[in-house]
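Is this the right way to post structure tokens for a design question? Let me know if I should format differently. Anyway, here goes:
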């Protein structure tokens, strides 16, 4: 299965994605304003690969003027349902449907890794105003936590390494990235955690054995968390 196929797989689970994917901590947006060098209030922002609008809504709540960019039909439909007043254009980071020099900030929440940096870097430079900023972030499971590391290892044993496609940005031609790691956690029912897991591309592309794996995981986690709740720790 190609990376493009995995990137296109999310539309089939857009509602589940919106319901169960985690949002982002307040500390992330504070760090974003600090590192960008300007406040989010009033900033012209393009949220690229916006999905169902999780990050878009959080940016708007902080006063940003956001236009969302989303390539997938299913995800765009769910975005419009949840964010009917937010401008949305169809496109992706490799060819942004945006005017040159018009944005203060480009954000990629869980989406930069689906782009081709040879194309998305020049596009970012084209669309950003002088002094603008590009922000790339993701929620990565904290594998220093025992049960999270154990689950990651079980997935890799069953389906192979590299299942979690979520590479962090590093220096690219014409761009300099400052990396900041922000720990946070959320407490959710086991079934919510597994529903979130099921929205990753590995579980959406029809890989044999994924349904059985999720059922086995539920039994293991209910044994580990008899009250039915997990506390998941992330790095954003």
């Amino acid at each position: 299965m190609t990376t493009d196929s995995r990137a296109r797989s999310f539309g089939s689970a857009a509602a589940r994605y919106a319901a169960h994917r985690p949002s982002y901590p307040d500390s992330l947006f504070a760090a974003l304003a600090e590192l960008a060098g300007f406040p989010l209030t009033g900033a012209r922002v393009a949220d690229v690969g916006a999905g169902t609008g999780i990050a878009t809504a959080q940016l708007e709540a902080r006063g940003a003027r956001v236009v969302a960019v989303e390539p997938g039909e299913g995800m765009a439909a769910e975005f419009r349902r949840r964010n009917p007043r937010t401008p949305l254009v169809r496109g992706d980071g490799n060819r942004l449907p945006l005017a040159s020099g018009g944005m203060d900030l480009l954000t990629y929440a869980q989406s930069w890794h689906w782009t081709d940096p040879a194309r998305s870097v020049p596009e970012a430079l084209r669309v950003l105003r002088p002094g603008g900023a590009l922000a790339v972030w993701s929620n990565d499971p904290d594998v220093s936590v025992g049960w999270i590391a154990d689950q990651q290892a079980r997935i890799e044993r069953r389906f192979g390494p590299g299942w979690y496609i979520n590479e962090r940005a590093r220096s690219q031609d014409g761009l300099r990235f400052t990396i900041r790691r922000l720990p946070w956690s959320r407490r959710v029912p086991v079934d919510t955690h597994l529903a979130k897991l099921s929205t990753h591309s590995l579980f959406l592309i029809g890989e044999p054995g994924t349904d059985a794996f999720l059922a086995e995981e539920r039994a293991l986690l209910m044994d580990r968390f008899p009250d039915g709740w997990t506390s998941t720790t992330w790095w954003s």
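Format looks fine. Someone answered above. Worth noting: The chain has ten helices and eight strands. The two ends are 27 Å apart (CA to CA).
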